[in-house]
Amino acid sequence: MPEPELPRPDNAATASAMGRALHALTALFPALGEGSHELSINAERTDGTEVSADLYVSVEPGSVRVDHSAEEYVQFFVLLTFALEDSTVRDAVLVATTTDAGIRACGWDVRAGWLHPIGPAELQKTVTALPADDAAPYVICHAPVLPRPH
């Protein structure tokens, strides 16, 4: 018996979600502030398959550097796009971990076509494995509200 196919969003829905993904990243980088950040997106597709992608970025005054290959960036961007598009992804969470002066984490629930901050208590339940570093304190923070595009 063949596996069921995922729904295929139309081109307009995909283009709109791509624009929101680009807007989300351009709002997210300055909101995270200076430092080295790991962005992890975990999603459950409508067929039950779990997928994830990571992106490492360094934010400095006036610049953002992606510490991945173009292929890895595209993988992250595509997963974020389809999570925001919402017809092929059932559930998705984006977590940002900053590892400069200690370890800080904050997160967003991807729903209704945008990133919605997850409070620290809820994120603590969601995050199951962050790198443990005995020398650095581990703090879960409030995620900044990202301005939604019009």
Q: What's the SSE pattern?
A: HEEEHEEEHE
Q: What is the alpha-carbon Rg in Å?
A: 16 Å
Number of strands: 7
> What proportion of the residues form beta strands (DSSP E)?
35-45%
Detail the poorly predicted runs.
none
Tell me which oligomeric state these chains represent.
single chain
Overall geometry comes to: globular
Separation of the first and last Cα atoms:
44 Å
Largest sheet: 7 strands, mixed
Average of the residue pLDDT scores? 86
Class by SSE composition: alpha+beta
Helix content: 25-40%
DSSP summary: helix tally: 3
Explain briefly what this protein structure is.
With 150 residues, the protein is α+β, with helices and mostly antiparallel strands. It contains three helices and seven strands.
Describe this structure in words.
- The chain is 30% helix and 35% strand.
- It contains 3 helices and 7 strands; from the N terminus they run H-E-E-E-H-E-E-E-H-E.
- Strands 1, 2, 3, 4, 5, 6 and 7 form a 7-stranded mixed β-sheet that branches.
- Strand 2 (50-60) and strand 3 form a beta hairpin.
- Helix 1 (11-32) packs across helix 2.
- The protein is globular and about 45 Å long.
- The N and C termini lie far apart (44 Å).
- The mean pLDDT is 86.
Features of this protein?
150 residues, 3 helices, alpha+beta, 7-stranded mixed sheet, 7 strands
Write the layout of secondary structure elements.
Layout: H1 11-32, E1 35-45, E2 50-60, E3 63-66, H2 70-85, E4 89-98, E5 103-111, E6 114-118, H3 120-126, E7 138-140
Parallel strand pairs: 5-7
Antiparallel strand pairs: 1-2, 1-4, 2-3, 4-5, 5-6
Helix pairs in contact: 1-2
